[in-house]
Design a protein that fits this description.
The chain has about 450 residues and is of the alpha/beta class. It is built from 14 helices and 15 strands. It has a seven-stranded mixed sheet, with helices on both faces. A four-stranded mixed sheet has the order 1-2-3-13. Strands 11-12-15-14 form a four-stranded antiparallel sheet, covered by helices on one side. The protein starts with a helix and ends with a helix. Bound molecules: pyridoxal-5'-phosphate. The site of pyridoxal-5'-phosphate has 13 residues, from helix 6. Pyridoxal-5'-phosphate binds next to helix 6.
C-alpha cells in the first residue's frame, strides 16, 4: 500500500491503542505511519526521518539496526522448533534465557516466569505472590500498596495497581484491593528540596497506609524504581531501602516494576540496582528483547520460588504464548549484543553529559524542572517563572496539539504526558552516542523555545 492508501485503510480498519480516534483520524491530520528504522532513527511512509528519542515507547534499547542478527537467531529457532509452551514442558531457549537472567540479575532473583508483555508480568507477579502466601499459610494477604499516578498496565488485574483514576473509572471496581500513596515527585513537594525530610515523610505516609489496610493483610508493595507517569520521578536517597525494610517488617513482598527501568534504561540490568536494593519480585518486559519480539519476564527470588516448589499444588497461572521460543531466542541474542557492544557501559558513560545538556534547557522559561536517570529524562513544562502549572485548556493546547505537531516538524519523537503535571519525556535508544544525544537535546531546545513563545511563557 502507498502512503495515501495506508492512511485511508488505517482510518477504516485500525483501532489504535490509547488514542483519541476522532483526532488521530481527523481528515486534516496525518497518522504517523513508520515503515523503516536505522540506528536511533525511524522513517515514515513519506520518507521523513525522525530521531526516536522515545525508543518506541521505552522498548527499542538497541535501536533499529540489529535486524540481521535477530533474523539469524529467529531463523535458527524457526527451523529447529517454532513453538512449544512452558506449560509442564519447556524448550531450550526458555531454559537458557532463564539461566542467563538468573546470572545477570542481582541478588537471588534466580527464577523466571515468562509472559508476553508488561501488564501480563504485573498480573503474573500478583498471582505468584498470592500463591506464595497461600503456600506459607497466610492466605489473608489480599491487599497491595502502589503509588498515585503510577502506570502498571491496563488489563484488569494490572489496572488495579495503576494509579491514574481516569484510566480506571469506566471499568468498574478494581479486581485487587490496592491503596495508592504519594509518588516521589520532589519538584512540587513542600519539602522536595530537603531529600531526607521528603523521604521520611513519604515513608511515614506509606506506613500509615499499611496500618490502615492492616499490615498482615498486605501481600505486596509495588513501585517503579524511577516512576514514569508524572515524568521520571527519581526517589530520594533511602526511599527504596525504607520500602525494603517496611516490606520485611510486615512480611509483605516488595515488587519492583521494571517494565521501563529494566534492561539498561538506567544503566543497569535492573533499575533498582541504582538503589542497592533487591526486590522479592521484579516485573520486566519492553527492553528484554529490545523490542525485536514481544516478551516479558517475572523474576522471582529463592524464597518465593521455594514456596511454589514446595506447595505440592500447581502454579495456577499460565499464558499459552508466554516464553515463546522465537521471543526467547531474540532475548538471548539481545542480551548477548548488550554484553558484546557495551550497551550498559554506553548509558553509564553518557548519563552525566546528557543530564548536563538537558539541564541547560532550564534557561528556557517554559522548562521548570529536569529530572531522570540513565537514558530516561523528563522536562516539566511550566506556565511562568513561578513554575505555575498550566490549566486544563492550556495543557490540551500545548501537549495534545502544539507539541506533537511541532515535534513532528522537527523530526523528533518524544513523549508529551499529562497524567501528572505537564511533561515532555525522552528515553533514547541505549546505543545512542554523544552526537545523537546532542542532536536530540538541540531539537528539544528549538521545540521548547517555540512552545514557550506559543504559550506566552516568559513574555
Ligand atoms: C511500569 C510499567 N508497567 C507495566 C506496563 C504495561 O506494559 P504493557 O504495555 O507491555 O502491557 C507499562 C507500560 O508502559 C509500564 O510502563
Amino acid at each position: 500500500m502507498n502512503h495515501q492508501l495506508l492512511q485511508e485503510t488505517a482510518r477504516e480498519h485500525l483501532l489504535l491503542h490509547f488514542t483519541n480516534h476522532g483526532a488521530a483520524y481527523d481528515p486534516e491530520a496525518e497518522l504517523l505511519v513508520l515503515d523503516r528504522g536505522e540506528g536511533p532513527y525511524v522513517f515514515d511512509t513519506k520518507g521523513n526521518r525522525y530521531v526516536d528519542a522515545l525508543s518506541s515507547l521505552f522498548c527499542a534499547q538497541l535501536g533499529y539496526s540489529y535486524g540481521e542478527e535477530m533474523t539469524a537467531a529467529i531463523a535458527a529457532q524457526m527451523q529447529a522448533l517454532p513453538f512449544n509452551t512452558n506449560w509442564a514442558t519447556a524448550h531450550p531457549p526458555a531454559i537458557e534465557l532463564a539461566d542467563k537472567l538468573a546470572d545477570i540479575m542481582p541478588g537471588d532473583l534466580n527464577h523466571v516466569f515468562f509472559t508476553s508483555g508488561g501488564s501480563e508480568s504485573v498480573e503474573a507477579a500478583w498471582k505468584i505472590a498470592r500463591e506464595h502466601f497461600v503456600a506459607i499459610g497466610e492466605p489473608q494477604r489480599l491487599k497491595a500498596i502502589a503509588r498515585r499516578n503510577a502506570y502498571h498496565g491496563v488489563t484488569l488485574g494490572a489496572l488495579s495497581f495503576t494509579g491514574v483514576p481516569g484510566f480506571k473509572e469506566a471499568f468498574g471496581r478494581p479486581a485487587i484491593d490496592v491503596s495508592h500513596v504519594a509518588n516521589t515527585n520532589a519538584f512540587r513537594a513542600p519539602d522536595g528540596d530537603d531529600p531526607a525530610a521528603f523521604c521520611a515523610r513519604l515513608l511515614a505516609e506509606m506506613r500509615v497506609a499499611v496500618e490502615a489496610a492492616g499490615a498482615d493483610e498486605i501481600a505486596v508493595i509495588i513501585a517503579e524504581p524511577v516512576q514514569n507517569a508524572g515524568g521520571c520521578l527519581v526517589p530520594p536517597p533511602g526511599y527504596w531501602a525504607g520500602l525494603r525494610a517496611l516490606a520485611d517488617e510486615i512480611g509483605a513482598l516488595l515488587i519492583a516494576d521494571e517494565v521501563i527501568c529494566g534492561f539498561g534504561r538506567l544503566g543497569e540490568w535492573l533499575g533498582l540496582e541504582r538503589e542497592g536494593v533487591v526486590p522479592d519480585i521484579a516485573t520486566t518486559a519492553k527492553g528484554l528483547t529490545s523490542a525485536y519480539a514481544p516478551m516479558g519476564a517475572v523474576l522471582v527470588n529463592d524464597t518465593v520460588a521455594d514456596s511454589l516448589h514446595g506447595s505440592g499444588g500447581p502454579l495456577r497461572h499460565g499464558i499459552t504464548f508466554a516464553g515463546h521460543p522465537i521471543c526467547a531466542a531474540v532475548a538471548l541474542r539481545s542480551i548477548e549484543i548488550f554484553e558484546r557492544d557495551g550497551v550498559l557501559e554506553n548509558v553509564r558513560s553518557q548519563e552525566a553529559g546528557l543530564q548536563a545538556r538537558l539541564r541547560d534547557l532550564l534557561s528556557l522559561p517554559i522548562v521548570g524542572d529536569v529530572r531522570g536517570r540513565g537514558f530516561f529524562w523528563a522536562m516539566e513544562l511550566v506556565a511562568d517563572d513561578a513554575n505555575s502549572t498550566f490549566d486544563q485548556g492550556q495543557r490540551d493546547r500545548l501537549l495534545r496539539s502544539y507539541l506533537p505537531k511541532r515535534m513532528r516538524d522537527a523530526g523528533l519523537i518524544a513523549r508529551c504526558d499529562d497524567r501528572g503535571d505537564s511533561v515532555l519525556q525522552i528515553a533514547p535508544p541505549l546505543i545512542a552516542d554523544a552526537a545523537v544525544l546532542d542532536d536530540i537535546v538541540s531539537r528539544l531546545g528549538d521545540v521548547l523555545a517555540d512552545a514557550g513563545a506559543y504559550m506566552g511563557v516568559g513574555a
